[in-house]
Amino acid sequence: MLEMSFRCFCAVAQTGSFSRAAQLLFVTQPTVSRYVLALEKAWGFPLFTRAARKVALTQQGAYLYGLLQGFQAQWDAGLDAAKVMAKDVHGRLRLGLTSGWQIERMPILEQFCRQYPHVQLEIQKFSFFALAERLAEGTLDVVVRGMPHGYPWGMQGRFASLIPFSVPGIIRVSSTHPAAANAQTVHELGPMNMFAFSDEHRPNSTTYMNDLLRTNGWDMSLVYYPNMESVLAAVDTHLGCSYTVPLAVPLAGSPQYRFFAVDTPIDIGFHWLKENPSEPLAAFLGELRRARPQDLVVLDNIF
Q1: 41/81 Cα distance (integer angstroms)
Q2: Domain spans of the chain, in order of start
Q3: Contact present, 100 and 130 (Cβ < 8 Å)
Q4: What 3 state SS string does the chain have?
Q5: pLDDT band at 193 (very low <50, low <70, confident <90, very high)
Q6: What CATH number does the domain located at 4-86 have?
Q7: Distance, CA of 207 to CA of 223 (rounded, Å)
Q8: CA separation for the pair 152, 150 (Å, rounded)
Q9: CA pair distance 65, 52, nearest whole angstrom
Q10: Which CATH code, of 2.30.30.60, 3.40.190.290, 3.30.1330.60, 3.30.870.10, is assigned to 90-303?
Q11: How far apart, in whole angstroms, are the C-alpha atoms of residue 212 and residue 150?
């Protein structure tokens, strides 16, 4: 909520006209002019350049307008949150997480539980496609999955999506693998197998993994496995490496593995059914949209 002088300034910046700003605020044009002039006098610089038929923001005015817009957006989001809190939301939120992911790397989940103590958060873990199936069946309220940036999710139609953050891809190899002892980069691992999910278990996996190897020039052979357990077993027995995300690494770290960062972002997407979202789901989505980056994901203790 902005006081009248700031509202007049923002209205002129938005409309490019003192007269249209007055109409927008249901006041007279002299009133708008008076408030804007008072700001310019107090701050010692012009906010607008004024011509016969055109009003434009100065450099200082444009900078301050951006700040005020950000403040207004934060205020609106905070007000929405307060309204939800006032309802004292009750119920259950069934969240589906990708198998192998660690909930402690997503502080937003614990914060949501503290913020809404009367909402029972149930977390279930499934494979990529199983998450979508259970969401469509209505046995989950929201699911969390990862997909390389720019690749289709396959979540059209009844589903809505929010992608609040991205994480880097990482290569995982056993810390006792001979090639991992002195390697500082993925290239230094040399020729080896890279284990990944097939297209039957992860959409577009074959295309993406081949693109990844070709783009980075890695001397590796792709081997496709059906599940995370099989992939980890192969990595643990020195048969090769795997491609994963930081969310799959325990917060305390995994000393049995070495991880190498890959300069390819993985979008983390939250998906839900469009029709009739429950109050707990609406509250959770609101928290996601308002969250700071450090509340969404923790990337410590990986490398």
Answers
A1: 36
A2: 4-86, 90-303
A3: no
A4: CCCHHHHHHHHHHHHCCHHHHHHHHCCCHHHHHHHHHHHHHHHCCCCEEECCCCEEECHHHHHHHHHHHHHHHHHHHHHHHHHHHHCCCCEEEEEEEECCCCHHHCHHHHHHHHHCCCEEEEEEEECHHHHHHHHHHCCCCEEEEEEECCCCCCCCCCEEEEEEEEEEEEEEEECCCHHHCCCCCCHHHCCEEEEEECCCCCCCHHHHHHHHHHHHCCCEEEEEECCHHHHHHHHHCCCEEEEECHHHCCCCCCCCEEEEEEEEEEEEEEEEECCCCCHHHHHHHHHHHHCCHHHHCCCCCCC
A5: very high
A6: 1.10.10.10
A7: 13
A8: 7
A9: 22
A10: 3.40.190.290
A11: 13
- pLDDT of 151 reads 80
Q: What is the pTM of this model?
A: 0.69
pLDDT tens by residue, 110-128: 999 998 999 999 999 988 8
Structure tokens at 238: 């020195």
Q: Torsions phi, psi of 12, nearest 5? A: -65, -40
